[in-house]
Automatic annotation (TrEMBL), chain A:
The keyword Membrane applies. This is Solute:sodium symporter small subunit. Keywords: Membrane, Transmembrane, Transmembrane helix. It comes from Franzmannia pantelleriensis. The chain crosses the membrane at residues 12-32, 38-65.
UniProtKB/TrEMBL annotation, chain B:
The keyword Endoplasmic reticulum does not apply. This is Solute:Na+ symporter, SSS family. PANTHER family: SODIUM/PROLINE SYMPORTER-RELATED (PTHR48086), SODIUM_PROLINE SYMPORTER (PTHR48086:SF3). InterPro entries: Na/Glc_symporter_sf (IPR038377), Na/solute_symporter (IPR001734), Sodium:Solute_Symporter (IPR050277). It is found in: Cell membrane. It comes from Franzmannia pantelleriensis.
Length: 77, 507
């Protein structure tokens, strides 16, 4: 039992996990270093724009994941 | 301030919140843990969305975050990022926690821990230590509420009077309607906060720049104070490591009220739908933070950074907007303190006193309702009035501890071999490191103390778990049927999966 862990069991599951992790990684170092510039984009500081890109990326990833789960549940039925 | 309007508007908000909270009961009997504690697991997606959103947006958004923008700059946006990540956490864990609650009858986080590890002592320990951070958080929000009443009344309502006034209002509707009151009032408060934040932010922007575009403000900031637009910020203390570890630690702080909110949902699907939309709420942070940036130019010599929005509003905005700001800030602090007060009362009754005194479920249900009275009168109110200087420190240690409970959740969601002693050893080791690195040597190398705690906690947890006995196979099986409905993976076997029942019996 000691080597048993919960991991995704399908390609779709892995794809969603990678998407979740990618969104999180995009908000921390070293990625955040890439957008840490004193420049404006659409009138806002780049770091602020990036923060809101991440916020809406979280929304998008979960929206897609919901569709996948509903499709899988339909298939299981 | 001489106009009566700000106070009248703020008190009108309090009256509306009271009516909504009292009506939330809807004729139901509130003496059971299921009803008072988790609203009969009945909340729909919109209520749950606003419940979680308003609960996570505290007085910090209306006072602390603009203060950070004023003092440090864009570093404050780590808050928006981690709040969005908390939605990912809610999306993944929330439905499983809801299923645990629905199938096994859990109403608190600590009761889930006690059940998973078959240890009421571990549940009680988790409940008590988690309550340190929860109480400190509720006290801070109460202080914020009383401060708002003090400002809006022009000093007529001193803090010592504002504290019992706010707590009294919350106590009445919380006692009467429990989690349903929190759901309904947070829904109202969530909408109010969104409207007030954008109204105040846009008015201030127009006042400062003559338009409604953010560009001119930030162009001036770039030209005159470019250090506010990047990390480590104007204070020079928000390094990449602190940004990163603060986000990670905050993401994994599974605070007890959040579990109660998840367990109040009407279904697992409801949680996923609410969590999906949750990040969109955090646009509320932007306009308030903008006022903080405006304050850099218009209020350059503020003694307390976190008063920047209130000071700016009182000097530059019409009285009606000042009143709305008071109502919005009070809504933010009340909507955040209520769930913590409710959660502590629930957990002390269910996870500490019930197993200790052998109480029945019916008596425990009644006890939980009454528990809010001594909790508020003997703990929260005196602390809020005294405003001890170490309160923020207590909160930091409390939140640091919340992260140290992570092993309990790893054993619940990912690793069936986790043992009771492994979890306890990990928590104790991580907690000691967090306390030391918060008080004696704050955040060494710019890394969050809670992250240091985790770095010792997790290896200790794994090592002790491997040499001590796991929970009964029957318990492991029923938890992992929910946590891993498609089976578990054996490490080093090329991805071979094993069903939960096989895994539980050593397969």
């Amino acid at each position: 039992m000691q080597r048993l862990v919960v991991l995704p069991t399908s390609r779709t599951g892995w794809a969603l996990t990678i998407a979740f992790v990618a969104v999180v990684v995009a908000g921390i170092w070293p990625v955040i270093d890439l957008v840490n510039r004193a420049v404006l984009f659409l009138g806002l500081p780049l770091l602020v724009v990036w923060s809101y890109v991440l916020i809406f990326a979280c929304f998008a990833v979960m929206l897609i994941a919901n569709r996948v789960i509903e499709w899988q549940e339909g298939e299981d039925d | 301030m001489t106009s009566p309007w700000p106070l009248l508007i703020t008190l009108t908000y309090v009256a509306i919140a009271m009516v909504i909270g009292l009506r939330a009961r809807g004729g139901r009997r509130m003496n059971s843990l299921e009803e008072w504690g988790v609203a009969g697991r009945s909340m729909g997606p919109v209520t749950l969305y606003l419940l979680i959103a308003a609960g996570s947006v505290s007085a910090y958004t209306f006072m602390g975050a603009p203060g950070w923008a004023y003092a440090k700059g864009v570093a404050v946006f780590y808050v928006a990022v981690y709040l969005a990540y908390l939605a990912l956490v809610a999306w993944y864990f929330g439905p499983k926690v809801w299923q645990f609650g629905e199938q096994f009858g859990h109403v608190t986080q600590a009761s889930a821990i006690a059940d998973r590890y078959q240890s009421p002592a571990l549940g009680a320990l988790a409940a008590l230590v988690m309550s340190i951070g929860s109480i400190a958080y509720a006290v801070l929000q109460t202080v914020g509420s009383a401060y708002i009443l003090f400002v809006m009344s022009g000093g007529m309502i001193p803090v010592w009077l504002g504290v019992p006034l706010v707590l009294g209002c919350i106590a009445i509707y919380l006692f009467v309607s429990g989690q349903r009151a929190i759901g309904r009032t947070n829904a109202f408060q969530g909408v109010l906060m969104l409207i007030v934040a954008w109204a105040v932010g846009m008015w201030a922007l127009h006042n400062a720049t003559g338009g409604l575009r953010f560009g001119p403000l930030f162009e001036r900031l770039l030209a005159e104070h470019g250090e506010f637009l990047t990390l480590p910020g104007a204070g020079g203390d928000m390094t990449f490591s602190f940004w990163t570890t603060s986000i990670i630690v905050s993401m994994f702080s599974f605070m007890p009220p959040v579990w109660t909110q998840w367990m109040s949902a009407s279904s697992a699907r409801t949680i996923r739908r609410s969590a999906t939309w949750l990040p969109t709420y955090y646009v509320v942070i932007l306009p308030m933070v903008v006022v903080g940036f405006i304050g850099i130019f218009s209020l350059p010599d503020l003694a307390r950074a976190d008063t920047v929005v209130l000071e700016y509003a009182m000097q530059h905005l019409p009285v009606v907007l000042v009143g709305l700001l008071g109502a919005g800030t009070l809504a933010a602090s009340m909507s955040s303190s209520e769930p913590f007060i409710h959660s502590v009362a629930l957990s002390w009754s269910r996870d500490v006193l019930q197993p200790l005194l052998g109480l029945s479920d019916a008596l425990t249900g009644r006890l939980a309702r009454w528990m809010i009275v001594p909790l508020m009168a003997l703990v929260i109110a005196p602390l809020a009035i005294a405003e001890p200087g170490s309160l923020v420190m207590i909160l930091l240690v409390g939140l640091g501890f919340a992260t140290q409970v992570l092993p309990a959740f790893i054993g619940m969601f990912f690793w069936p071999r986790a043992s009771r002693l492994g979890v306890m050893a990990g928590i104790v080791a991580g907690f000691l490191v967090t306390v030391a690195f918060t008080t004696l040597w704050p955040h060494p190398l710019g890394v969050h103390a809670g992250f240091w705690g985790l770095m010792l906690n997790l290896p200790v947890f794994v090592a002790v778990s491997l040499v001590t006995a796991p929970a009964d196979s029957e318990v492991v099986e029923r938890f992992f049927r929910i946590a891993a409905p498609r089976g578990l993976t054996r490490l080093g076997s090329g991805g071979k999966t094993v069903a939960a029942d096989t895994a539980a019996h050593g397969g």
